[in-house]
Each structure stands twice: as C-alpha cells, then as structure tokens.
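[09:14] KT: can someone run the structure on this one? pasting the chain below
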Amino acid sequence: MKQISIEQIRQDFPLLNQKINGKPLIYFDNAATTQKPQIMIDSLVKFYTQQNSNTHSQHSLAEDISHQIDQIRIQILNFIQADSSEYSIIFTKNATEAINLVASSFGSILEKNERIILTQAEHHANLLPWQRLSKNNNLNLDFIKITADGLWDLSNLDTLLQKPTKFVCLNWVSNVLGVINPINKILEIASKNNIYSLIDGTQAIPHLEIDFRKFKPDFFVFSGHKIFGPTGIGVLVAKTSILRQMPAYQVGGEMVKQATLFDSLYQDGYQKFEAGTLNLAEIVGLSTSLEYFKNLLGKFDIFEYEQQLKNRLLENLNRISGIKILANHNNQIPLVSFYHNRVNDYDLSVFLDLKGVAVRSGRHCAEPLHNHFELNSTTRASLCLYNTFKEIDNFSNYLEEAINKLKN
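[09:31] RB: done, structure tokens below
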C-alpha cells in the first residue's frame, strides 16, 4: 500500500519543521492536540478571504456556506460509516461540550435512582458532567474498575449492567493508558438490556477505523483538533430518534420554528441543539482535515505504521532503568504514560523541552485514574502518523540523560 513516504507526510505539517531551544522539534504531545496540515490551514484562509458569510441569508455567499455545512454533515457520517437515516451530526465547540450537551439534555429525562456506568479511566470531560448530573437528579454512578496492568476489569460486568442501569458512558481509548477498550462487548450487552450508550472517541478518531456498521452507540463524540483539524470544533453523533425526545441544551438563534414574546416552538432533530452562529470556519477546516486523513489512508498504512511506532517506543522505554510503564499491550495506540520513582515528572518534561521534545506531565485530566494507581502524576508520550523511529530513539536518549542527571 505504501505509495508515500513518512518524509513526504511530514512536509505537509509546517510546524514540525522548526527548532525548539536550538533542537529539532520532537512533538510527542499528540493526545493533547495534533499538528495541522498546510491544506487545512489554507482552507481557513480561503474561508475568510473568499467564503465568509453567515448561514441562512438569501444571497449567494450565505447559500453556498449553508449548502457546504449540510454536505460536511454527510461527509462526517460517511467518514465514520454511519447511516444518515439513523444518525445526525451536531456541531459543538469540542468533545467536552458535546458530552455536557448529552448530560444536560438526555440526562434530564433519566429517572431518580437510575444508574450510569463509567470507568475509572475516564477523562474529566466524561466524568464531571455525570457527577454533577447524578447529584442534581439523584442518579447513581458506578464504575468499571481498571486492573493493575491498565485493562478494564469485566469480571462483574453482568452485575453492573443489570437494572436500574440506564446509561453507559465510556472512553474507547484512554488518554492516559492508550488501551483500545472492548466497547463492542459493552454495547452489545447494553443494547440487549435497553441501556443507552455514549462513546468518547476523542483519542480513537486519529488512530482507529471508525465503522458504525460494526457498533451502534447512541451517542459518539470527538474533537476536531485531535484529528489534524482546528481547535474550537467538536462533533456529537447522535441517533436522530433519541434527539427528538431530548429538550434543548441552549436556546436562541435558528433553533426555533416559531417564536412569540411569551413562548417558542423548537426545531426537531439536530437543529434544536445548534443555538446561534456555528464555528463555520472551523467546520470547514475539520472537513478538510478529515478529507486529508481519508486520502492518506489510501496511500499509507497509518494503523500498521503507528503500531510499529508504539512497539519501538515501548521497547526503548523498557530498556531504561527505573522507568515504570502504566500499560503495555498489543491493543494500544502509540501512547505511553510512565514514571520514575526518583525523578519528578514536571522536572523531566522541562528537561526534555530543553532538548526540543514536547511531552506532557501531570494527571492528564484523569485524576481518579492516577489515584487508583497511587500516583501524583505521570509523563505521557503520545505519537501519531507523522512521528518517526529516529525521533523515538532521540527521545529515549534524552530521557535517559534526563533521568541520570535528575535522579541525583
């Protein structure tokens, strides 16, 4: 399949071709945000210089952008291989807002003492909204536990998914562990028991094939900036039949059919959940990034290459004395969190930055997971399709140098 080289791919991302503190940039913080291809950057410039208009006005610019946004909804459904007769697209500013929308709107129709199932490894974005909802609406939270090696403990799954469980909200890939979780198994049981589902696909979207023909969650969320798109744009994929049952999340703008001084009639479907002007430029940018990614898949085996990157990274880390890795599995994206008992993670990341290496240290918005492992923080190296084996080797050498200097 390989019709394009990694060197050619890297040329598409202008930010990679720079030096930090006099060293070539090694960008290993892709779980926080990915870098942007020039073609996506150009699409933002084109929007503001040639297309800029709001939707729903009766002139050519407005009609063109209105039509384009409608086409982008179809494009996203095609990208995730979802049936347009079953699912709708709602644009938000990020995945966090998408989850809050579901918690606020769909959560409001859950009944007292019904149970929501999460995991111990959820990002705060898929934890805090449900915490607040459970307190305000007298709902119960329960959790799939995480084993010592970073996997889901499914030993009591049948018990967890018994009544009065009404909703499961799960990450497909943990932003700390990188493990690709067995969501199909959960969704299958949930569907048989009339339990609704939300899948946080934020870390999965740039690393896995998303195929709604193989699994059918009720809600699915992701952020554009995680898949080479701009910040400020998120996507909620939702079953249209469920949206019709849900109350509006925010109100105003074009989300009404009719408004009087004392009452309003809201739109049905996705329109009910898009109050005010959308982030139109960012939607166009997301469209371009998804098209770029899809085209690249036809020229380069991204998934196989990223597995090779992950294996190289794990092999190198395992050779460094004192490094402890939270998860080391075959079913893992190229994301590894680790720590050293004698070196502070923050100091480690600062030292690496001096060498031009961008990693992330801290709790990664997953404090309960770190508490589970009895850790204050970890260092996370997260890679993607434009990273190289040479970068991994240089990072590993810098890491070993940092540990030798800092542990004393």
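[09:33] KT: thanks! Residues 53 and 59 are 9 Å apart (CA to CA).
[09:34] RB: yep, looked fine to me
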